[in-house]
């Protein structure tokens, strides 16, 4: 199998685990051949730590003959520019979530990628980990019967107390839905299938946030996006889902995801992780049972989706963390906001297939 060469744009908070895994557990299947960042010291550190060539300009990395796939881990509002330049150059692109901040931006990237016959891949890839893949097998094998409903909760107090640069979480492309919603919605689409229509309510609770983490302690953030979103999803197969994402909650006792079937209930692990635990309580059973993980990749395996895409390019098959899946999730997230603004249901214009279960 040929090894796909990866160029990374953006050496920020999340890049460390990508560099570790792409040069470690996935190093026989992909190879990082270039890095770049607007803050040159970050890329220089990656060069020093891993011996990866540092290319100072993004356009030079994209056009490098030593790069087959660009890994775009810039901030959300920069996803579009880097991804568009990459597909226009005839290179494959894999982007951190969300695929783009706006639907029209993502549509353009996907359109040009199709014309250029290059792949678009997108995080999150946590749904390929042992936890959610075990849940997928249990669902497919009929452990809880037909899915009837699902709930998903991601609620907390926001990032300003711990993140070194939390401002972008409250700008365009941020907020709890666009930040964390992709993990939960991608998991749900993988487990249940695509969504047909949504409704939602959104609110911005605080106009400003004060950073209490270093190095920006005391700085005031002007909040530009809703920070509490409640959504309802009508899945194409008839199941009904509920999701709440919030940066306005101090504490709670809510599950991450539960799926309710005609013959039982499945408790899905945190979709921001790759592992477990997984619990099932079937019809007539008196208590929950923890199910041993049945699949690979229980630990932090970020880069798994990119590696699967690299292999799929070589093998000529669809990749799992696809642009179509990412766009469907993006439209769902915007749909909640549109429904809240209009007071009406939002009917999804996109759809996608459930990704094939991971078999390695």
How would you portray this structure in words?
- The chain has 360 residues and is α/β, with parallel strands linked by helices.
- It has two domains: 119 residues, Rossmann fold, CATH 3.40.50.720; 188 residues, 2-Layer Sandwich (Dihydrodipicolinate Reductase, domain 2), CATH 3.30.360.10.
- It is 30% helix and 23% strand.
- The strands form three sheets. The protein has a nine-stranded mixed sheet with strand order 15-14-13-12-6-11-10-7-16. The protein has a five-stranded parallel sheet with strand order 2-1-3-4-5, sandwiched between helices.
- The longest helix is centred in the last third of the chain and has 20 residues.
- It is globular, with a radius of gyration of 20 Å.
- The model has no long low-confidence stretch (mean pLDDT 96).
Brief overview, please?
The chain has 360 residues and is of the alpha/beta class. Helix content is 30%, strand content 23%.
């Amino acid at each position: 199998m040929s090894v796909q060469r990866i160029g990374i744009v953006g050496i920020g908070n999340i890049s460390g685990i990508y560099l570790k895994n792409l040069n470690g557990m996935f190093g026989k299947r992909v190879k990082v051949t270039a890095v770049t960042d607007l803050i040159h010291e970050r890329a220089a550190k990656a060069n020093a730590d891993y011996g990866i060539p540092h290319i100072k300009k993004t356009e030079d990395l994209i056009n490098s003959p030593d790069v087959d796939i660009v890994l775009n881990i810039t901030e959300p509002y920069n996803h579009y520019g880097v991804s568009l330049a990459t597909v226009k150059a005839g290179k494959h692109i894999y982007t951190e979530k969300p695929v783009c901040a706006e639907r029209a931006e993502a549509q353009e990237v996907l359109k040009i990628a199709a014309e250029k016959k290059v792949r678009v891949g997108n995080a999150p890839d946590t749904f390929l980990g042992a936890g959610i893949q075990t849940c997928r097998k249990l669902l497919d094998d009929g452990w809880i019967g037909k899915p009837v409903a699902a709930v998903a909760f991601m609620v907390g107090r926001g990032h300003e107390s711990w993140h070194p640069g939390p401002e972008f979480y409250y700008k365009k492309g941020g907020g709890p839905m666009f930040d964390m919603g992709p993990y939960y919605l991608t998991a749900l689409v993988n487990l249940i299938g695509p969504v047909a229509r949504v409704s939602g309510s959104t609110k911005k609770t605080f106009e400003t946030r004060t950073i209490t983490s270093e190095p920006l302690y005391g700085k005031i953030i002007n909040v530009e996006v809703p920070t509490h979103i409640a959504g309802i999803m009508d899945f194409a197969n008839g199941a009904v889902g509920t999701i709440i994402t919030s940066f306005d909650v101090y504490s709670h006792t809510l599950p991450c995801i539960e799926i309710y079937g005609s013959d039982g209930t499945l408790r899905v692990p945190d979709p921001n992780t790759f592992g477990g635990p997984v619990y099932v309580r079937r019809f007539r059973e008196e208590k929950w049972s923890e199910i041993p993980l049945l699949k690979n990749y229980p630990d932090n395996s970020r880069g798994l989706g990119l590696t699967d895409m690299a292999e799929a390019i070589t093998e000529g098959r669809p990749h799992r963390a696809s642009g179509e899946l990412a766009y469907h999730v993006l439209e769902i997230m915007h749909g909640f906001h549109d429904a809240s603004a209009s007071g009406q249901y939002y009917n999804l214009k996109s759809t996608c297939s459930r990704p094939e279960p991971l078999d390695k």
